[in-house]
Amino acid sequence: MSNFLAIATVTATLKRTLSAAVSRDVDGAVVTSARPEAPSGGATGKGVNIFLYSVTPNAAWRNRELPTRSANGALVGRPRAALDLHYLLSFFGDEGELEPQRLLGSVTRTLHAEPVLTRERVSATIADDLFSPFLAESDLDADAELVRFTPIPLSLEELSRLWSVFFQTPYLLSVAYQAGVVLIEPQVAPPAPLPVLTPRPGRSPASRSRPSSRGGSCRDRPRA
Question: In whole angstroms, what is the distance from residue 6 CA to residue 142 CA?
Answer without folding.
Answer: 11
